[in-house]
Amino acid sequence: MISNSAAERDQQQSRVAAYFDAHALDWKTIYERPGVYETIHQQRRTRALRLIDGLALPAGSTVLETGCGAGSMAVALAERGHFVQATDFVAAMVSYTRRLAVEAKVGDRVRTGVSDIRDLKFPDHSFHLVVAMGVLPWIYPPLDPTVREIARVLKPGGHTVISIDNRWRLNHILDPLLGGRRLLGKILRRLGMARTAPSASAHTCSRRHFDRLLRAAGLVKLQSFTLGFGPFSLLSCEVVPESLGLKLHSKLQSLADSGFPLIRAGGTQYVVLAKKE
């Protein structure tokens, strides 16, 4: 008999797969479009690559990108001379990755496959680097088993660049309805009072809790930062024009990067570089 939590996890993954399958083209073009949300993702990619470049990995290092999306990161890593295994839970994303690798003429250094980050089909100690950007928020908690799975496939001394959605993000603090709607919907469904079916939703995690998960999995944090301020809303409706939103994000991000109290912890995403002991 399947427990309620196990059934909820499977249902969540089905909803997530359906969502990303339906919006695959949007995620393919997100690195090309303007906008606050899009800019945050573009900067996340740039800064994650900067972290990886700082590791000075030898050419030919083995890299796993789990949750590869449309392949932008996987191709960038292959262009740096690494051998990349790019996997995603959604077949449409894997197809986009394969096509982009061929177009970029790095198809020989990018292998693709449909795979679940919760159960990676690779032997222990397989990769010098594991990249998991933007995938953990879509995993039904707890995250402990998934973080341990990432650690398992890393070689001793290997690194991971990984992100979560920050629970204490500034735009949710200023508009609590954003973070509260999902919780309210869950409560109403439990009570049999909800009229709509649950949708795919991203889960948040506090930075401190995530740091504890990393340590428990044998991963030592080397660097971390929060990234992304906005879009800002009131009662879950965006109230800041796009042009002003971009300026606000830029100013707040500059303060966060300089270590300004409170602001430095208020980005929408928490990005960590960690090393396997």
Give an account of the 3D structure:
- The chain has 277 residues and is an alpha/beta fold.
- The protein has a single domain, classed as Vaccinia Virus protein VP39 (Rossmann fold), CATH 3.40.50.
- Helices cover 44% and strands 21% of the residues.
- The protein has ten helices and ten strands.
- The chain has helices at residues 4-22, 24-29, 36-55, 72-79, 91-103, 144-153, 170-174, 176-190, 207-216, 242-257; strands at 62-66, 83-88, 110-114, 127-132, 154-166, 204-205, 219-227, 233-234, 237-238, 269-276.
- Strands 1, 2, 3, 4, 5, 6, 7 and 10 form an eight-stranded mixed beta sheet that branches. Strands 8-9 form a two-stranded antiparallel sheet.
- Helix 6 links the parallel strand 4 and strand 5 (154-166).
- The longest helix is centred in the N-terminal third of the chain and has 20 residues, at 36-55.
- The model has no long low-confidence stretch (mean pLDDT 91).
SS elements, strand count: 10
Number of helices: 10
Low-confidence stretches: none
Q: What's the average pLDDT?
A: 91
**CATH homologous superfamily grouping:** Vaccinia Virus protein VP39
By CATH, the topology is Rossmann fold
